[in-house]
TrEMBL record:
Superkingdom of this protein's organism: Bacteria
Record keyword Signal present: yes
InterPro entries with a match to the protein in the record: FAS1_dom_sf, FAS1_domain
Keywords on record: Signal
Protein's recorded name: Putative surface protein with fasciclin (FAS1) repeats
Organism: Natronoflexus pectinivorans
Length: 507
């Protein structure tokens, strides 16, 4: 223990001397560096008196006299006179305002190498380039000081609201904005709540804290995040109505239009108006691709209003159509990602899965489930479960790509014809903790038994695809496909698949 303490002291002393040496080396090599801290420099110049008073008031003096390397965009008294009173309304807003003019690191704006985004102590990010911050010009060249730089500003850099703050408080009132705001609710926060005891059932009792959360921000794109760079299209009412009429039939949760269907359709539409890039005016592509991967048509002529937020841009637009074929796309279900080997009546677990490397298979792999069970009285496993995802309410033409290069069974090869069929299975039960499916319902088949006759893959996948049938989903739901062997008479049968393709039949 004593040795550890001595080593700790030696390390601490070395670190302190290293910091001191680095400071001394910096000042010795840079003869133009003033032997003043940022704070003493600002305090000595009367043109910054109001800004310094605000620094003192909010408690940043210690930060500006420390050895940390800092850049301050200092406001002259004239600039302070231009600050709207709303930014100085209380202690919190004052501290945010001052912090919006301070950043860690040495940022000399006279050097193009410092162009980019910097995070201010207010937590917001600002664009900087030679002589400009957030588009505002620096009044005078950067002053190099003992612990950083001072850039003089003759107008304030006002904190901008986030895209979400714009939606909540500033956006024009319309159906799109109303829908986004309707997703906000008061939610119990276990992280902020304190457990104060337990009830008679042994369950925790909290001194509960509830906070407002928005499910769009939580699950689609966080428009409130200062660390994001986003673009949001807000569409006018006629655009939302047109897109709704175009897509509602594909997003039915039950047969027939209900309030739940309406909400699901609006979510599917509006999530494609968020983009993971900050597109400044004049730089929006003609077909930007949404965060969800969907191309959206854009025209500068359709812009009704634009807004620069702290984390990107907002455009209110009178047109932003999405093609049905771009949103309702073919689905590829890869065979190498099975949910389960599934059996309804088999007591023995003799089925064996094989993930195989094949040069021309999709992704370089396919999958074989060898279903042999010893003894003629035993049934085979009931097939291979493949997750297809959350699919729209639409009819699909279904194809599979599969080869039989293993003579029906890996372990008991034969000259029997390999035959398999396809259906859908519903989830019966899930593990309450992990959420993993523990039981599926028997499959509802939409194909007959179909032979797998190809013995090798061709370089062109589409040449190998076999049309196996159609399936119609009357409602949008999470779909599991079940690939089943013909096994009543040939007990050495397997199932095999490279992928299953579902091609939507669009109206």
């Amino acid at each position: 223990m004593q040795i550890r303490r001595i080593l700790t002291l030696l390390f601490t002393a070395t670190a302190l001397f290293s910091c001191s040496d680095a400071w001394d080396e910096h000042t010795s090599r840079n003869k133009d560096v003033s032997n003043q801290t940022i704070y003493t420099y600002l305090q000595a110049d009367p043109q910054f008196s109001q800004f310094v008073a605000l620094i003192d008031e909010v408690g940043y003096k210690e930060e500006l006299t420390s050895s940390k390397q800092i850049t301050v965009f200092a406001l002259t008294n004239g600039a302070m006179e231009m600050v709207p009173s709303t930014f100085l309304a209380d202690q919190s807003s004052k501290k945010d305002f001052v912090g919006h003019h301070i950043t860690y690191g040495r940022n000399n704006l006279s050097n193009d190498a410092n162009a980019g985004r910097i995070q201010m102590l207010s937590s917001k990010w600002l664009e900087v380039e030679q002589g400009l911050i957030d588009g505002l010009a620096v009044l005078s060249s950067s002053q190099a000081l003992l612990n950083g730089f001072v850039n003089v500003m003759d107008e304030p850099v006002l904190p901008r609201p986030t895209i979400w703050e714009y939606v909540e408080n500033m956006a024009p009132q319309n159906k799109h904005v109303d829908y986004l705001n309707s997703l906000t609710s008061l939610t119990f926060s276990p992280d902020l709540s304190t457990q104060i005891g337990v009830n008679d059932l042994g369950q925790p009792v909290y001194d509960s804290v509830f906070i407002f959360r928005n499910s769009f921000n939580d699950n689609i794109a966080d428009l409130s995040s200062e660390d994001s760079t986003l673009t949001l299209f807000i569409v006018e009412d006629q655009v939302l109505d047109q897109e709704y009429q175009k897509f509602w039939r594909y997003y039915r949760v039950v047969n027939g239009t209900t309030a739940r269907d309406t909400a699901e359709t609006k979510m599917r539409i509006t999530r494609d108006y968020v983009f993971n890039e900050s597109y400044s005016p004049g730089n929006v592509p003609a077909m930007p691709v949404s965060a969800n991967g969907i191309p959206v048509a854009f025209s500068e002529d359709a812009v009704v209003e634009s807004f620069k937020a702290s984390n990107g841009y907002v455009y209110v637009v009178s047109s932003a159509p999405v093609e049905v074929a771009d949103r309702i796309r073919p689905i590829i279900v890869e065979g190498e990602s099975p949910e389960a080997y599934y059996r309804l009546t088999t007591e023995r677990a003799d089925a064996q899965g094989y993930l195989r490397i094949r040069e021309h298979a999709s992704g370089g792999h396919d999958f074989v489930l060898d279903n042999h069970i010893a003894g003629s009285s035993q049934r085979l496993t009931d097939g291979l479960i493949l997750p297809a995802g959350f699919l729209p309410s639409i009819q699909y033409r279904v194809y599979w790509r599969a080869i039989n290069d293993f003579r029906t069974s890996y372990r008991y090869p034969s000259d029997n014809e390999l035959r398999q069929r396809l259906g859908t299975s519903a989830v019966m039960t899930r593990d309450p903790v992990t959420g993993r499916v523990t039981r599926f319902a028997p499959p509802v088949f939409f194909t007959d038994f179909i032979p797998v006759t190809a013995t090798e893959y061709s370089p062109n996948p589409e040449e190998d695809e076999v049309f196996v049938g159609t399936v119609n989903f009357g409602s949008m739901r999470n779909v599991y496909l079940q690939l089943v062997p013909e096994g009543e008479s040939t007990h050495h049968m397997a199932v095999t698949v490279d992928y299953i393709k579902l091609v939507p039949v669009l109206n």
